[in-house]
Amino acid sequence: MGKAKDNGGSVIAVNKKARHDYFIEERLEAGIALEGWEVKALRAGRIQLKESYVLVRGGEAFLFGAHISPLPSASTHVEPDPRRTRKLLLHRAELNRLIGAVERRGYTLVPLSMYWKRGRAKVEIALAKGKKLHDKRATLRERDWQRERQRLLKAR
């Protein structure tokens, strides 16, 4: 199964929209290849995962759409690209399993969160199935009922 059971270090960003739009089946932890200015921006918490997704191309996984906004003090000789494609670092066996799930079973790979682990940035990715509109409504209804139930139990 996946390695990401405990996020360990401090959380940089969370993709809340992923849990709303997808049924999360399995989670994995992946390293991410970053440039120096990106690491500094992550330490300042300047990342957005909301519109991002993971694609597998040529036997490698890449993170698309993650927006890391550069710090104003970024180096003058580096041209920062906030939406550049970033390579995810996974073991070959994990990649093969993900490729099989995405291509044959129709799953989607979405990033759930980004966090620090032993000084390195890690991304928690998930194999997910898309929710239909009625599934989203049912999830909202269930969450509202749980909230109301807690209020009723607290009132007693």
UniProtKB/TrEMBL annotation:
**Protein keywords:** Cytoplasm, RNA-binding
Pfam family example for this protein?
Answer: SmpB
Which processes are annotated in GO (biological process)?
A: trans-translation; trans-translation-dependent protein tagging
Q: TM spans, by residue? A: none
Q: In which compartments does the protein localize?
A: Cytoplasm
Q: Provide GO CC annotations from the record.
A: cytosol
Tell me which PROSITE patterns the record gives. SSRP
Q: Does the keyword Oxidoreductase apply?
A: no
One GO term in the molecular function aspect is: RNA binding
What PANTHER family would the database entry show? SSRA-BINDING PROTEIN (PTHR30308:SF2), TMRNA-BINDING COMPONENT OF TRANS-TRANSLATION TAGGING COMPLEX (PTHR30308)
Family per similarity comment: Belongs to the SmpB family.
Main function: Required for rescue of stalled ribosomes mediated by trans-translation. Binds to transfer-messenger RNA (tmRNA), required for stable association of tmRNA with ribosomes. tmRNA and SmpB together mimic tRNA shape, replacing the anticodon stem-loop with SmpB. tmRNA is encoded by the ssrA gene; the 2 termini fold to resemble tRNA(Ala) and it encodes a 'tag peptide', a short internal open reading frame. During trans-translation Ala-aminoacylated tmRNA acts like a tRNA, entering the A-site of stalled ribosomes, displacing the stalled mRNA.
User: What is the name listed in the Swiss-Prot or TrEMBL entry for this protein?
Assistant: SsrA-binding protein
